[in-house]
Amino acid sequence: MRHPFLFILINERTMKTMITLLFSALCVATVSAQTDEKDNAMLNNGINFLDIPYVAHTLEVTDGEEELIINCDEVDCTTFVEYTLAMALSPTEDGQIAEGDFADKLQMIRYRDGKINGYTSRLHYIADWVNNGVRNGFLEDVTTANSPYIQQVSLSYMSSHPKLYKQLSNSPENVAKMKEIEKSLNGQEFHYVPKDKLPFAGLPWIKNGDIIAITTNTPGLDVAHMGIAFYVNGKLSLLHASSKEKKVVISKVTLGQMLKKNKKLDGSQSAKNEKINFRYLLSK
């Protein structure tokens, strides 16, 4: 099984100053095969999160310097994918993952080139998150090779709505930095799958365990939701942290049906594991 992530190790002293650990047994749990795909670490680790509560803003718990927050007992759609991915990329010994290894992988996934340098070094926009993964060798954007549909990134939401973000609301400096990040991403082209082009049965190149990002038509934003591809009875479903159901679930309907029901969701994009596969699924 391929994994698209490059492992960057942070020395122990640095880790102690940068991490707030809210570790649960789940973060370092034995990876037990939950599906017929015993070697699919991304999928099986994700399934271990089923019924974990959905809680927003779990990374906004400190008032001081930016820290690596690890809280596997409460997740949103992004942190669920990040924790699952960090687990899939971490080495195991007797079925267990060392806390330091898990934290190293998570920091590389969540922060630009694995370096914590304030709030804006966190990868808030998924376009930036994917670029980081591809650049550092642990994500593969498989949609580019498989879908001809192209859209340009147009980001402005965070800098134009600073009151919605704790670390932006009283920091003109952070807002200015965020504007520069948005500017650097704007105009970038990405491939996606329009929602009316996604069969309920999925597509041959979307595999179990692929990371799915669902785009939005909200002005200034790129992605509204993330999850993990999971085929159930031959139909493509989404394993995800659901704000509606308030926990990690496997969607009761197919991903295609989810996209058609929600007018704010644009389509999808996908990324692969080992490199982990990443896919954009967009609705147009």
Defining key terms:
about 280 residues; alpha+beta; nine-stranded mixed sheet; two-stranded parallel ribbon; 10 helices; 13 strands; about 30% helix; globular; disordered N terminus
Mind explaining what this structure looks like?
- The radius of gyration is 18 Å and the shape is globular.
- A hairpin with a 4-residue loop joins β10 and β11.
- It is an alpha+beta fold and 284 residues long.
- The N terminus is likely disordered.
- The chain has 10 helices and 13 strands.
SSE order and pairing:
Layout: H1 12-18, E1 19-22, H2 41-47, E2 68-71, H3 77-89, E3 92-93, E4 96-97, H4 99-110, H5 126-135, E5 139-141, H6 143-146, E6 149-152, H7 157-160, H8 166-169, H9 172-185, E7 189-194, E8 211-216, E9 223-232, E10 235-242, E11 247-250, H10 255-261, E12 265-273, E13 276-282
Parallel strand pairs: 1-2, 5-13, 7-13
Antiparallel strand pairs: 3-4, 6-7, 7-12, 8-9, 8-12, 9-10, 10-11, 12-13
Helix pairs in contact: 2-3, 3-4
What's the total number of strands? 13
Number of H/I helices: 10
What is the element string, with H for helices and E for strands? HEHEHEEHHEHEHHHEEEEEHEE
Largest sheet: 9 strands, mixed
Shape: globular
- Structural class of the helices, strands and pairings? alpha+beta
Round the Cα radius of gyration to an integer and report it.
18 Å
Cα(first) to Cα(last) distance is: 33 Å
Query: Into which percentage range does the β-strand content fall?
Result: 15-25%
